[in-house]
Specification:
heterodimer; A: alpha/beta; Mannitol-specific EII, Chain A; 5-stranded mixed sheet; 9 helices; B: mainly alpha; Clc chloride channel; two-stranded antiparallel sheet; 25 helices; 5 strands; 66% helix
Chain lengths: 224, 574
């Protein structure tokens, strides 16, 4: 197989000028001289082996990492579901009844999740103000197959020790199998919740489909 | 009195301390004298061993001598001297490149004794590598005695080598060239002068003690224009034989290790095989200087096809001797094989073209020697100068250069690593000064690591971290467990920038949620080459070093470049 200066520069991670200088200095095995240099893969491999240079000509590694599990907030909300009229008098009872309702959580893990969430709230309240809270555990939840964002509207506002001391009327649960998704969803959600229009839209307790659609629109405004 | 003392101090300081050239020259000549003595001792004892065993050679059971010799030799090395087998030259090269030429004093006599047992009893090996080892070790010991540093010690090791080779062949320039070309691997002004003087000192010693027994008498050869074409052909032949010889040496060693026999049995078997061969073809026995002498002077009585066979017999005998437990070098066997090949070539040539006006058999023996020496050691200059000095004249220099350069180039083409270097390269120990491998092996991980990183707890809230960030220059924050202090992950500022600019996140997350736990970490046991490979493969500029779950520091490419460059400057400056 033949390679051009440009191809080789990509493989070696240098600019084409460097390749040309190396050819000038007689350091690279070049198979066709003239204005356009050509390199033979085999010769290059021998040259690299001799000079202890790492050169990967055959496998162009695809960047798997960047494609790793990016999930949109709207689809996470679809996974998680929207629930209305959750009952409870304080933070703990509200969390408990929300977890009862959220269908994505396997039953055997519900008690444990409640412990984790209350522990998290005790460490630092997730009430971000404007009557909104984002309860989430600090750990990743390996038993979930996909990330969930469940939106729970409360029957009546409860005291949540939020930053602005206002009672909370809506909870956004973020439950993720992997921490990285969690950060991503949290960031996306935080972007939405900075939008006052969105908050007033929330206050109208919209239909789940409308809510997801609104979130989708906001996502488009803030592509990651 | 005080003035005298001051004056002495001043002179001492100026002469020896600031500029060590004079010191090295004096120490080098002393080294040369002692290593010259070592090789004289070995030569004389080899000759007396030969005389002593000569009356027994006619008996049918004489073939056991090499076996017993090899057994005693490996017993001595293994049990008494407790040194590894092998001929010693790679060990010296490795010590020069890795440990500043540090060698044990024991090595200065152990190889002499073991090779005396092997060669004196008839084993096919050379006494040169053992005397190189002992000369180098003498140089190293003198350096230790004088409290010299690594660089000066390396020069003295070179002096010892040069003195030994110069003394055994009565060839000072060959000694100098061998020491610089093969052992040190760098032509530096500060090295060459002391080594040259040591080489001359070694030669003088050997001439003073055994004046009438210079190994090879100087000869006059008539070599003309018509010898150029045959020498080209001879070069090809010697290159092929060199490769064959190198391969045979390495293979027999490997085969010997695979056999079920113990070390001692192997030595006896190998020695006896050589002994049996020697009954039919005495040219394969011993170091063979006498045969070489007779071949050069044209009095060698062995004709036609037998010489051709003898080439391979000698290769086999040497490979078996060295591979199966004997101790010694390959220098002398190379010379014997070379001269046999030269004579065989001459025979073939004069058989095919009887009318051609070419030089004598002796001249071709010389050319053959050059070819094999240059081919096996891939040290063309050593080959040329050794033979020039042996012949004592420049009549043969043109064909010598042709054969030497062509043979070393061709054998290099077929087998890129010479016999001496092959082992070292395979073990990753071939570290010539100024090369990448050398710098990477000299630089220690602990020298490169940057440790002044403040660590953060995994339970820290992101808001606190942002506050910390405002007054910090760090690009990386290692995250640790609160109680035990164990390393949990790392936060790279560039990776979290998005979240750091979003105040909505500040109270929402703890550092354990944002840290990267999948970053590849290095450990203190990794060498720099491995660390660089890790960074290359994973496309990292900075890598954390974690030892036993404990964060030690970070290694960055910036820092590596900085130190690498300084190291290169230090190593290449005189």
């Amino acid at each position: 197989m033949e390679l051009s200066v440009f191809d080789l520069s990509k493989h070696l991670g240098v600019v084409p000028g460097t390749i040309e200088r190396w050819v000038q200095q007689g350091k690279l095995p070049v198979s066709k001289k003239g204005t356009n240099f050509k390199f033979h893969t085999k010769e290059l491999e021998q040259w690299a082996a001799k000079h202890n240079i790492s050169l990967k000509l055959s496998d162009k590694r695809t960047k798997e990492k960047s494609q790793e599990s990016v999930i949109q907030l709207s689809s996470a909300v679809r996974n998680g579901g929207v629930y209305f009229d959750i009952r409870g008098n304080d933070m703990k009872s509200v969390l408990e009844s929300c977890i009862e309702k959220i269908s994505g959580i396997p039953d055997e893990f519900k008690a444990e999740l409640l412990d984790r969430l209350t522990e998290r709230e005790r460490a630092l309240s997730t009430g971000i103000g404007n009557g909104i809270a984002i309860p989430h555990p600090r750990e990743q939840l390996g038993y979930l197959s996909e990330p969930l964002v469940s939106i729970c509207f409360l029957d009546k506002p409860v005291d949540y020790h939020a930053v602005d001391n206002q009672p909370v009327w809506v909870l956004f649960f973020i439950l993720c199998p992997v921490l990285k998704m969690h950060l991503y969803l949290l960031s996306a959600l935080s972007f939405c919740l900075r939008d006052n229009l969105f908050i007033s839209f929330l206050k109208s307790k919209p239909e789940p489909e409308d809510l997801v659609g609104k979130i989708e629109n906001l996502q488009k405004a803030n592509p990651v | 009195m005080l003035m005298m003392k001051n004056w002495y101090k001043n002179v001492y300081h100026k002469l020896f301390h600031l500029d060590d050239r004079l010191l090295l020259i004096i120490a080098g000549s002393v080294t040369g004298v002692f290593s010259g003595l070592a090789s004289v001792v070995l030569r004389l004892s080899l000759e007396s061993a030969l005389k002593w065993l000569h009356p027994f050679q006619q008996y049918w059971w004489a073939f056991v001598f090499p076996g017993i010799g090899a057994l005693l030799s490996s017993f001595y090395l293994e049990k008494i001297a407790r040194e590894g087998a092998g001929h010693g030259v790679p060990e010296v090269i490795y010590s020069v490149s890795r440990y500043g030429g540090l060698l044990r004093f024991r090595s200065s006599y152990s190889r002499i004794i073991s090779s005396l047992l092997t060669i004196g009893s008839g084993g096919s090996a050379g006494p040169e590598a053992p005397v190189v080892m002992s000369g180098s070790s003498i140089g190293s010991s003198i350096a230790k005695l004088l409290g010299l540093n690594d660089r000066q010690r390396i020069t003295l090791v070179g002096c010892g080598t040069a003195g030994a080779i110069a003394s055994i062949f009565n060839a000072p320039i060959a000694g100098l060239v061998f020491a610089v070309e093969v052992i040190l691997g760098e032509w530096k002004f500060v090295n060459i002068i002391p080594i040259a003087i040591a080489a001359v000192a070694g030669t003088e010693i050997s001439q003073a003690i055994i004046p009438e027994q210079v190994i090879f008498n100087h000869q006059m050869f008539k070599v003309g224009f018509y010898d150029i074409l045959p020498s080209l052909c001879l070069a090809v032949v010697t290159a092929l034989i060199s490769v064959l010889f190198t391969k045979a040496l390495r293979q027999t060693g490997k085969i010997a290790k695979k056999t079920p026999f113990s070390l001692w049995t192997r030595a006896i078997i190998g020695g006896c095989v050589v002994g049996i061969m020697g009954m039919f073809m005495p040219v394969v026995l011993g170091e063979g200087y006498h045969f070489i002498q007779s071949m050069i002077s044209g009095t060698f009585a062995m004709g036609g096809f037998i010489v051709f066979l003898a080439v391979f017999a000698k290769i086999f005998a040497t490979a078996v001797t060295l591979g199966w437990g004997g101790s010694g070098g390959i220098f002398a066997p190379c010379l014997v094989i070379g001269s046999l090949a030269g004579i065989a070539f001459h025979n073939v040539m004069s058989g095919l073209f009887p009318s051609i006006e070419c030089a004598s058999q002796g001249a071709y023996a010389l050319l053959g020697m050059t070819g094999i020496i240059s081919g096996v050691m891939q040290a063309p200059l050593t080959g040329i100068f050794l033979i020039v000095e042996i012949t004592g004249g420049y009549e043969t220099i043109l064909p010598l250069i042709i054969v030497s350069s062509l043979s070393s180039t061709m054998s290099h083409y077929i087998e890129p690593a010479s016999f001496y270097f092959k082992e070292l390269i395979e073990r990753g120990q071939f570290l010539r000064p100024g090369t990448d491998a050398r710098i990477l092996s000299d630089l220690n991980i602990s020298e490169i690591i940057e440790t002044d990183y403040s660590k953060v707890s995994e339970n820290m809230v992101f808001r606190e971290f942002i506050e910390l960030l405002k007054n910090s220059h760090q690009h990386f924050f290692p995250v640790i467990e609160d109680n035990t202090g164990e390393y949990r992950g790392i936060i790279q500022i560039s990776a979290i920038r998005k979240y750091a600019l979003d105040p909505g996140m500040y109270n929402m997350i703890f550092l354990n949620q944002i840290m990267d736990t999948e970053v590849i970490t290095a450990s203190l046991e990794n060498d720099l080459q491995e660390v660089l490979d890790m960074m290359d493969i994973n496309n990292m500029d900075t890598i954390p070093v974690v030892e036993n779950d404990w964060f030690i520091g970070m290694i960055s490419k910036t820092r590596i470049l900085d130190l690498y460059r300084r190291e290169l400057i230090m190593q290449t400056s005189v």
